[in-house]
Design goal:
By secondary structure, the protein is an all-alpha fold. Helix content is 86%, strand content 0%. It has helices at residues 2-12, 15-44, 52-57, 59-65, 69-99, 104-139, 145-172, 180-191, 194-220, 224-257. It starts with a helix and ends with a helix.
């Protein structure tokens, strides 16, 4: 429990970073939404009685009007996700260093020094996570699909916590930056630390739940209020992700102090 509360204190100690991360996500979502609106307008433009903003919530109907819009929507959403992923990858050492308590020039120096290792270890984790998912999928093939989906989701979230642990080890604990063993040790570390793994997975599930709620609000189209509800849920989701990272940082620094 001390690690969980310690991670929360680290998050609440950097409210500006939480708000900044949320604004960044909101900005990317706004650009994607504007592009989707342009595509929807191109599809329903001849029908003046349609509200283009509400057409975004009825995207299935938009696709029925013009199926050619589909590829454009997919590319737009994927591009937005890619931009968000790259931005987080590049900025994660800075966030880790701030949650660890660094400030000023020390903060920037710590982040810059850790960035190359974070990039390399993130690439190793792509292979590690892919291999883990393959092993889980093959192992559970004889079981019902529901078991496979649940197990696959949990494996994906465990790999996410392991990635956080590896990044923290590179930025704060001077772990080997280039070797795949560092990525593997990150996975082994969190599996052996239920005090980190369990809350990390639960917070990951919380992020999935908030993402599902945001998607439901978008598809349901409950009016203007749903936009603000989605923004609030995004703020919560970003906070959950930073809390998880704060827990990993708290655990790493507590281990160093022992």
């Amino acid at each position: 429990m001390s690690v969980i509360l310690g991670g929360l204190r680290r998050l609440l100690g950097a409210p500006g970073w939480w708000l900044g991360a949320w604004l960044g996500v909101a900005a990317i979502a706004g650009v994607v939404g504007a592009q989707v609106q342009v595509l929807a307008a191109a599809a329903v433009g001849p029908f003046d009685v349609l509200d283009l903003e509400r057409a975004l919530f009825g995207i299935v109907d938009v696709l029925r009007i013009d199926r050619a819009v589909g590829p454009g929507l997919v590319v737009t959403v994927l591009a937005g996700g890619l931009v968000a992923g790259v931005a987080w990858l590049v900025l994660s050492p800075l966030v880790i260093a701030r949650l660890a308590g660094h400030r000023g020039r020390e903060l920037g120096a710590q982040a810059v020094a850790g960035l190359p290792g974070v990039l390399v270890q993130s690439a190793w984790h792509v292979l590690l996570r892919g291999g883990l998912m393959v092993v889980v999928g093959l192992s559970l093939r004889p079981l019902p699909d529901a078991v496979g989906w649940v197990s696959g989701t949990l494996a994906w979230l465990v790999a996410g916590v392991a990635l956080d642990a590896t990044r923290v080890a590179v930025v704060e604990r001077e772990a080997a930056r280039w070797h795949i063993k560092t990525a593997w040790r990150g996975l082994v570390h969190v599996v052996r630390r239920p005090s980190v793994l369990v809350p990390g997975v639960l917070l990951g599930l919380g992020q999935l739940a908030t993402s599902g709620a945001i998607l439901w609000l978008a598809l349901a189209g409950l009016g203007t209020g749903s936009i603000w509800a989605a923004r609030l849920l995004t703020l919560v989701s970003v906070g959950l992700g930073l809390w998880r990272l704060g827990i990993v940082v708290e655990d790493a620094l507590a281990s160093d102090a022992e």
